[in-house]
Write a structure and sequence with these properties.
Layout lengths: L4 E7 L2 E10 L6 E9 L2 H17 L10 H13 L5 H18 L9 H13 L5 H20 L20 H6 L9 H14 L1 H13 L3 H6 L5 E2 L4 E4 L2 E3 L9 E3 L8 E4 L2 H21 L24 H15 L8 H13 L4 H8 L5 H27 L2
Antiparallel strand pairs: 1-2, 2-3, 4-5, 5-8, 6-7
Helix pairs in contact: 2-3, 2-5, 3-5, 7-8, 7-11, 8-10, 8-12, 12-14
Length: 395
Amino acid sequence: MGRLQKYETKKGDRWMFIIEDGVNPQTGKRQRIVRRGFTKRKHAADAMIDLEYILGKAKLDLKNDITFKDMAAEWLDVYSNTDRKISTIRVRKHEIGHLNKFFGFRKLKDITKKMYQDAITSLKVDKKLSENTISGIHGTARMIFKRALEQDLIFVDPSVYAYLPKDKKTVEEIENEKIEEKYFEKNELKQFLDAAYQLNFEYYVMFYLLAWTGLRAGELAALKWSDIDFKECTISVTKTYYNPSNSTKKYTLLPPKTKGSIRKIDVESEVLQALNKFRIQQNEIKMQMKHEWHDHNFVYARIKGPYWGYPHFIKTIENRFNAVLKKSGIQKKLTPHSLRHTHTSLLAEAGVDLQRIMDRLGHTEDQTTTKIYLHITKDRKKEASQKFGELMKSL
């Protein structure tokens, strides 16, 4: 092959760029890529650099022999340099891992629609992955193949029109599914919080706050005293805790799950009184430990050594919840997230409309929240229908 050459040139009122790699000795044909139609020279130059990067990254010649594994690695590199959360990138890596088991060393151009469909089906039938997990893997594949299409490395996207298998429930599962099993009833919540108070005051304040605000566990772990306005009675939610390695000192604070998750929550004075009492206790320990305290202002900081002041793991919150649930004697299979669902049920019972509940929880949409809301308000809807019927009868 000859020496690689590249240049921009103008034809009429449009710019184009050309990348040449000499003559292929086997075919005698010139190897070149031409892209036309740019209104400005800079646009042509930028597009050429972008394509060069793809070719160089995968160590390609111009025969488009790139493998799926190389293309996925290149896409992830570009994707990671956009404004993406660390946790999102980690999920994408995991999803690429699933795809590489099927296509890793295959050439992109050789992957057919049938191959792709067989892989997606296998994820459900053989790997027993959930509908949501498969949907995420498929979404990552779509972005990788789209990138390849944009670079003219393939001409057909094999992931287009793929059928994603759905989770199927048996008749028995549907009949036995009770939305009430996803949250505490009012009397159960009191029973749970009473058990928490008896077990440990910190546990009590932690779960009291979750039930009265609907915070996620990650938002709770990241909460700082500076987020709480005791004068205005509000809590600002601006971050979430992330620690995939479960190493106490290697935690990261990330932006919340979605833009809608950034919010300010009005809270009752009773909640703030409990928090203030807990802060006084924490400050006493903090003063004793002085320079050993990791002073980053966390509300739920570790008050036992050796990692004084560091935020708790999400798993710690789960373990504490399980300990309280066991002590309470409540037989439901619940998690800390159930307190978020409980908050939804209490708001619905208090007459708060669904949109305001969504805003308070930092949701754009959520099936479980909607189901709980509809379940709680069904009697109110029947009452409205009866009142309407009575009105019409009087006409």
